[in-house]
Amino acid sequence: MGTITIDGQAIPFQDGQTLIEAATEAGVYIPHLCHNPEFKPHGSCKLCSVKVNGRVCSACTFPAAEGQEVLNDTDELNEARRMITEMLFVEGNHFCAYCEKSGDCQLQAVGYFLKMTGPRFSYFYPRREVDASHRDILLDRDRCIFCELCVRASRDVDGKNLFAIAGRGIRNHLIVNSASGELEDSGMAVTDKAAHVCPVGAILIKRQAYKVPIGSRTYDERSISEVSLSAEAPVVAAKHD
Amino acid sequence: MNESLEIARNPERLRRVAIDPVSRVEGHGKVTLLLDEHNHIRQVRLHIVEFRGFERFIQGRPYWELPVLVQRLCGICPVSHHLAAGKAIDQLVGVDRLTPSAEKLRRLLHLGQLLQSHALHFFHLASPDLLFGFDSEAGKRNIVGVLEKYPEIGLKGVKMRKYGQEVIRAITGKRVHGSGAIPGGMNKALTKEERDGLLIDLEDVLRWAEEAVALIRQVYLANPDYHHHFAFIRSSFLGLIQDDGALEFYHGGLRAKDEFGRPLFDHIDYREYGDYLHEEVKSWSYMKFPFIVSLGRENGWYRVGPLARINNCDFIATPLAEAARQDFMAQGDGGPVHSTLAFHWARMIEALHCAEGIKELLHDPDILGRDLVVQGEKTTEGIGVIEAPRGTLFHHYRINEEDIVTEANLIVSTTSNNQAMNESIRQVAMRYLDGRELTEGLLNRIEVAIRAYDPCLSCATHALGKMPLWLDLVDADGIVLDHLTRNSDGETAH
Ligand code: SF4
Ligand code: FES
After folding, report:
1. Most buried by CB count within 10 Å: which residue of A239, B246, B296, B428?
2. Nearest CA in chain A to B60
3. How many CB pairs under 8 A join A and B?
4. Do B172 and A133 touch (CB under 8 A)?
5. A140 to chain B: nearest residue by CA?
6. A197 CB under 6 A from ligand 1?
7. Chain B contact for A132, CB < 8 A?
8. From the list B68, B173, B183, which residue is nearest A215 (CB)?
């Protein structure tokens, strides 16, 4: 137990908690994409960057310690996050205009939260494959942001270890651990945790597109800060209860 | 016909004039004229560079994305593409009859779209030519000019369009590019509040639509000979039709009539369209030229859109529009009305029918129903056909067992009218431009003829109802002899 401050506000923490866990429990939103409190931290997207006693750290991996002075909601940090988000948009093929995840997508919602208007970088248009071989699950690699949530879910929860990230830079892509390299013979089931953790529209349950009308989607009425805190605070609390 | 003007002999010895409107996503259109040393017209062609890449782009995507994905084809009638694709994917999931509520919601959505598109075209794009005259001062010949000189007419146009957009928003969640049609139905019921909200302005919209019919009638008949003969061509007509012969926009069989109004085929299941229509490729245009097989490549071209639909139907099921139709058909002396400018009149009759149809649907208890989706057995081929504002629209898809689109063929309305637009501008060129010094007013006549069809390339004219033009008079050696430009504010300069 101890106390830190985030943007001057006193925040209690439990021993062993990361900064983002302490913040979440206290109702303070720190933007994030690769972090999901149900899984081990990964620390790859850097969207959760905060300043701890003047040093930039990833809030999803950095342990909270007594007396830390943390800066979170500052112009400088939000500008850096906006730039990271824009980079994620140009590194993949994200066409929100017809993406079925639009309105439910965390990348899009974070973009709105950070008041991103459009990427200032040019698009990479990487060539990536769609894998539609599975009866009930679609893998659209165009939209993958390499958060490895599916990798962690499959390995740590489903006990199947079906996914990995391969390649580097622009050739980065998600691979499937099966004889053919396709989802069809991977043994993945629609009930697997890994089928339901993708923050973007890369792993989708087939034939569900657009069933939820505009106006009723996750982020139509509520911002990602609100949605994320209400979903994640109970998960964090349950860990030490 | 002016077919001799399609391919000039010795084109290398002729001067070339290009009317080159700058365009956005839907395609880029331009007109080229070849003239000899005495300014005699020797060749006239309308080129529309379609964004054909779209069909390839669709391939590889899962079928359920289609209705939303194809909306990006067009900024003006996205709902038509949405519904045509929606009908095609109903077939892909093995559904051939929707619930009454789902079908009525789609019909209501479609009427909203037709109403807003027709209002936009008539008031923003066409009325400046019709109210001010084809030769009037170019700088005033736009919607801003109309709003200044005829504020009441202009404002009614703006409001009718807005009403159509409100219908669209109530059903799809957004004025443009929303979502609604899903495999086997619709994703959202209309609430009572939304329905009541739409009822508020409905009587006004109906009245404005009636006034719009009266207005175009009056303008047309003020100079009947001129309007009748302007860009006049005779053609066959194609469109969907109700089982009982009534005007139909959403679902029906295919009907084609020849230039005398005699049936060529009738009540054809549109899934067999490939047996009745073929598409020809010509070396000089990126756009295909569809034709009616029984009439052959040369004579099989036809017109689609408001004029075709009003000519083709036996009656209209709503009273005000039906009365307007009967009055209109008197122009045809017992046969079809062929005048190209009659498109505008027919378009407003349809707008009136839309307003009446919206009223009927809003008072139908099914419209608030919540039973919206049916399921069926998956198939691998789907064909959706609809009457879009500009005419018959075909969406044809094949998918594989992984749910991925492997083949797509779209025939958009503007493609069907391709040959007819070429014929119309050849007629205009011969009648008004031949042997004369080209002026902005004369060239505008070519656009007036094109605009009557409301082709998608007029999207470029959105803001001010004015195609930016860039003309070069080039001699046989490629030397630029004269240069005429018109910017989007309508100002011309040599
Ligand atoms: S598929 Fe989704 S969950 Fe998996 S790494 Fe890519 S973005 Fe993350
Ligand atoms: S959320 Fe912390 S690095 Fe991604």
Report:
1. B428
2. A130
3. 56
4. no
5. B61
6. yes
7. yes
8. B173
Closest to B126 in 3D by CA, of B20, B235, B21, B216: B216
Q: Which two tokens stand for residue B411?
A: 């025939």
Average per-residue pLDDT for chain B: 85
**What value, to the nearest 5°, has the Cα angle with vertex B354 and ends B350 and B357?**
130
A217 interaction partners in chain B (CB closer than 8 Å): none
pTM score of the predicted model: 0.89
Tokens 């800066």 belong to which residue? A71
Atom of ligand 1 nearest to the CA of A146: 5
From the CA of A143, which ligand is nearest?
1
Fold of B55-416: Cytochrome-c3 Hydrogenase; chain B (1.10.645)
Query: Which 3 state secondary structure label does DSSP give B206?
Result: helix
Q: Does the CB of B409 have a partner CB in chain A at under 8 Å?
A: no
For residue B470, pLDDT beyond 50: no
Question: What is the DSSP annotation of chain A?
Answer: -EEEEETTEEEEE-TT-BHHHHHHHTT-----SS--TTS-----S-TTEEEETTEEEETTTSBP-TT-EEE-S-HHHHHHHHHHHHHHHHHTT--TTT-TTTTT-HHHHHHHHTT--S-SSPP------EE--SSSEEEEGGG-----HHHHIIIIISS---EEEES-GGG-EEEE-SSSSSSTTTT--TTSGGGS--SSSSEEETT-TT-SPTTSSHHHHS-HHHHHHHHHHHHHHHHH-
B58 C-alpha to ligand 1 centroid (Å): 23
Ligand nearest the Cα of residue A84 is 2
| C-alpha triplet A21, A26, A28: angle, nearest 5° | 80
Instruction: Say how many C-beta atoms besides its own lie within 10 A of residue B29's C-beta.
Output: 27
Domain ranges of chain B: 3-52+420-493, 55-416
B22 pLDDT tier (thresholds 50, 70, 90): very low
Rounded Cα distance between B475 and A1, Å, is 88
Dist CA B285 CA B424 (whole Å):
17
Say yes or no to pLDDT of B474 above 70: no
Nearest residue on chain B to A139, judged by CA atoms? B62
Distance CA B318, CA B349 (A): 11
Least confident range of A36-50, A164-178, B20-34, B280-294? B20-34
Q: Give the side-chain half-sphere CA count within 13 A for A141.
A: 21
DSSP 8-state code for residue B294: G
Asked if A222 has any chain B CB less than 8 Å from its own CB, the reply is no
Please check whether residue B67 touches A, CB under 8 A.
yes
Q: For ligand 2, say whether the CB of A217 is within 6 Å of any of its atoms.
A: no
Ligand nearest to the CA of A147: 1
Query: How does pLDDT run across A147-197, given as a tens digit for each residue?
Result: 999 999 999 999 999 999 998 877 889 999 999 999 999 999 999 999 999
